Structure of Membrane protein:
Amino acid sequence: MNWKVFITGVVAGAAAGHFINHYLLEPKTISGDVILENVKEAFKQEGPIEGSWIQLKKQHYKKFAMDTFVYHGGITAIRDGERKQFEFIADATTGTVIDVYLA
Protein backbone atom coordinates (compact mmCIF):
# COMPACT_ATOMS: atom_id res chain seq x y z
CA MET A 1 0.00 0.00 0.00
CA ASN A 2 1.22 3.44 -0.87
CA TRP A 3 1.77 5.51 2.30
CA LYS A 4 0.55 8.72 0.57
CA VAL A 5 -2.81 7.11 -0.16
CA PHE A 6 -2.98 5.85 3.43
CA ILE A 7 -2.24 9.31 4.89
CA THR A 8 -4.76 10.94 2.54
CA GLY A 9 -7.40 8.42 3.67
CA VAL A 10 -6.66 9.07 7.34
CA VAL A 11 -6.92 12.84 6.87
CA ALA A 12 -10.15 12.54 4.87
CA GLY A 13 -11.63 10.22 7.52
CA ALA A 14 -10.69 12.58 10.34
CA ALA A 15 -12.21 15.54 8.49
CA ALA A 16 -15.42 13.60 7.83
CA GLY A 17 -15.60 12.53 11.48
CA HIS A 18 -15.17 16.12 12.65
CA PHE A 19 -17.86 17.34 10.24
CA ILE A 20 -20.36 14.69 11.34
CA ASN A 21 -19.73 15.33 15.03
CA HIS A 22 -19.70 19.12 14.85
CA TYR A 23 -22.49 19.79 12.37
CA LEU A 24 -24.81 16.81 12.60
CA LEU A 25 -24.60 15.30 16.08
CA GLU A 26 -24.14 18.30 18.37
CA PRO A 27 -27.41 19.86 19.46
CA LYS A 28 -28.14 23.18 17.81
CA THR A 29 -29.39 26.13 19.79
CA ILE A 30 -32.06 28.61 18.83
CA SER A 31 -31.18 32.28 18.75
CA GLY A 32 -32.25 34.24 21.82
CA ASP A 33 -33.77 36.85 19.51
CA VAL A 34 -36.02 34.22 17.91
CA ILE A 35 -37.12 32.93 21.32
CA LEU A 36 -37.89 36.47 22.49
CA GLU A 37 -40.03 37.14 19.39
CA ASN A 38 -41.99 33.91 20.01
CA VAL A 39 -42.60 34.80 23.67
CA LYS A 40 -43.68 38.33 22.72
CA GLU A 41 -46.16 36.95 20.19
CA ALA A 42 -47.64 34.66 22.84
CA PHE A 43 -48.00 37.53 25.32
CA LYS A 44 -49.56 39.80 22.66
CA GLN A 45 -52.41 37.31 22.29
CA GLU A 46 -53.50 38.17 25.83
CA GLY A 47 -53.01 41.93 25.65
CA PRO A 48 -50.54 44.71 24.91
CA ILE A 49 -46.90 44.59 25.90
CA GLU A 50 -44.72 47.60 26.64
CA GLY A 51 -41.24 46.14 26.60
CA SER A 52 -39.11 43.03 26.55
CA TRP A 53 -35.56 41.83 27.07
CA ILE A 54 -33.49 38.66 26.90
CA GLN A 55 -29.99 37.75 28.04
CA LEU A 56 -28.20 36.46 24.95
CA LYS A 57 -25.67 34.51 27.01
CA LYS A 58 -26.94 30.99 27.65
CA GLN A 59 -26.82 29.75 31.21
CA HIS A 60 -26.66 26.22 32.59
CA TYR A 61 -29.95 25.14 34.18
CA LYS A 62 -30.52 22.01 36.25
CA LYS A 63 -33.77 21.23 38.01
CA PHE A 64 -34.62 17.66 38.91
CA ALA A 65 -33.91 15.55 35.80
CA MET A 66 -33.77 18.58 33.49
CA ASP A 67 -30.19 19.53 32.68
CA THR A 68 -29.88 21.99 29.80
CA PHE A 69 -28.86 25.50 28.76
CA VAL A 70 -31.42 28.30 28.89
CA TYR A 71 -32.03 31.94 28.11
CA HIS A 72 -33.55 34.28 30.70
CA GLY A 73 -35.82 37.07 29.58
CA GLY A 74 -38.65 39.33 30.56
CA ILE A 75 -41.80 41.03 29.30
CA THR A 76 -43.53 44.15 30.58
CA ALA A 77 -47.24 43.79 29.82
CA ILE A 78 -50.50 45.48 30.68
CA ARG A 79 -52.84 43.04 32.43
CA ASP A 80 -56.11 44.05 34.09
CA GLY A 81 -55.19 47.71 33.58
CA GLU A 82 -51.88 47.36 35.45
CA ARG A 83 -48.29 47.18 34.26
CA LYS A 84 -46.84 43.81 35.23
CA GLN A 85 -43.33 42.44 34.86
CA PHE A 86 -42.99 38.81 33.84
CA GLU A 87 -39.78 36.85 33.57
CA PHE A 88 -39.31 33.62 31.66
CA ILE A 89 -36.81 30.82 31.21
CA ALA A 90 -36.59 29.18 27.77
CA ASP A 91 -34.65 26.10 26.67
CA ALA A 92 -31.86 27.20 24.29
CA THR A 93 -32.04 23.99 22.25
CA THR A 94 -35.79 23.68 21.68
CA GLY A 95 -37.04 27.21 22.37
CA THR A 96 -39.62 25.79 24.79
CA VAL A 97 -40.56 28.13 27.62
CA ILE A 98 -39.80 26.23 30.82
CA ASP A 99 -41.17 28.76 33.31
CA VAL A 100 -42.94 32.13 33.44
CA TYR A 101 -43.34 34.06 36.67
CA LEU A 102 -44.13 37.54 37.98
CA ALA A 103 -40.99 39.49 38.76
About this structure: The longest strand covers residues 66-79. The chain has one domain: 29-102. The longest helix spans residues 3-25.
